[in-house]
Records
---
Amino acid sequence: MVTVVVTTYNPTPDAPRFKYATRCIEAFDEYLTPRPINIHLTDDGSPDTQPLMRMVATHRISVTTGNHNGIGASLNRALKHVGSEPWMYTTDDWLLTESLDLELPLWLLGPEVGYDLVRLGPIHPNLDCRTKFTAGHGWWLDVDSRYGFAFATRPFLASPSLVQKIGPFDEGMNAYDTERQYSNRCAGNILVAAINLAGPWEHIGEFEVGDRDVAAAAFPDGKGAS
């Protein structure tokens, strides 16, 4: 069974990130196959977690939270719940807009092919790719992980081998630095495929938290961790 890991952080009670996450979770219920799937929402220490508890009751999801320490800390907490199964990742503002069948990506991660990561779209520019095809499964892109953002925190499906090879995510960084550091560590060390160039996703909302300074947000008085 696939666990869908969704990272979220709502820095103030009136911020809309939990609303974005709710829309995305509802879209998984409508569009994502094959079923069943688990959905795990991992929160980066939002000050008001009552909306998370309401989401658990309404959507039958699981939730983890902890100290505000960046998206890497959220991912590391969530991976303790994933176990030895493939896991899918999105942030709370990538909305699935059409049907997405994980049958091909799951096959690509399996022993017959052995990819560590399958990007589900949208892909980044300036990647080196080869088109691949096999009867019975169809087309995909084989991505050379040595160049560009072959790994990225846009929607993907991962084998447990990803973290086994690369290790846990960096903590205490903003989202952009976390993504860049992990991408650098993956370069030339993992096998990456992609099944979509752009869709079927929409990046929703205008309230960004990816460039927030984690230490400054966690310790606004400037004293830092004790």
Note: Residues 45 and 68 are 4 Å apart (CA to CA).
---
Amino acid sequence: MWADSRWIAAPDGWLEARATAAGALDRLELLEPGLPPAGASRFEGVFSVVVNDRSKKLRRLPTLYFKKAPVFTGRDDIEVVRMTTSVAQTVMRSVTSPTYLVTACEIHRRLGLYARDVHNRSSYRLKLARVGGRFSENPFVTFAGKGTFECHEWGAFSPEFVVLGLPAPDDVVRTTGALLVFLIATRRIRKLSSSELHELVGALGTLEALSADDPELLATTIGG
């Protein structure tokens, strides 16, 4: 399946980027020539680019996977490779910057954290966007401490809510406390230190997370 494989040198090891078509990664920045040196730490299949097979009648949009999760689908290969560079840079910075696979979002002019899914073209996100939701392009946020997070579009911000994906067929389910902290902590890239966990508890302690199967109901509830 994988026709191309390249390596990116990160501060704590080598990250593999692979693609289903030869040459698809030629525009990917950060690549190192050749293979990682003998004995180096290797992390295989961190970034996977699945591009369109033009020989098939059923065509799909090219998609970037982070490990096994689809995180970005674009209109063409160039757009997806560009996003691969951005995501790779974020993952490399996560060695020193606390980084979470959570998307910054804005709903009814309120900034929050979106942790229901990680794919930019998930059906729920698209429906939420139709009722006024906006999302950061990068699927990660950086935890800046003192209750604030950072993303490229909005810089440092203090989230007012969190969106989760717990089952909620008939109403809005609200989540606070230890369960909320646990669900966000599991999205940390690399190891979470005890001191950071303490700060994360403080940052999320006053927040309420909302889950709803109906995106319009969710947006209305957040808008108040």
Note: Helices lie at 77-93, 123-130, 177-185, 194-204, 215-223.
---
Amino acid sequence: MNTVIFNTENAVFTFTKKEVKERLIVPESEYNPDEVSQLLKLISIGGDETILYPDDHSYFGYVVLDIISEGMGTVTCKICGKTYDADQLKEFAVGHGKSPLDINPEQKGGFRLFKKTKNPSMFGGKGYKCPVGHELIVMETWRT
């Protein structure tokens, strides 16, 4: 099987090489060209399976978030031992949300970007949980 496997502490993400290559090649401006080149080379060299680990390829975690958000791939939760399709996963916000421009309807004042705080440094990101609620992947996607 032509697959790319990404292991995290709590999950094993599995994608077809075609899904990964399409995601890396199309939005060239979204990713670091050097990282994309290295990942494409690694994926092309591998035989039927290419296994990536966060310690060596932490950048690929951002690609995983994008592929999962498009409903592609599967993930095996190491905690509950079940395999889920990407569209079954639950997305959640990390820190101050997925974007510094996100509006939080529960917070007065509209945009968080304009909120006065003692520490103007903020961060945010997103992650995914399995349907049972186990955290599978969490990535910081922005920082001010």
Note: The mean pLDDT is 80.
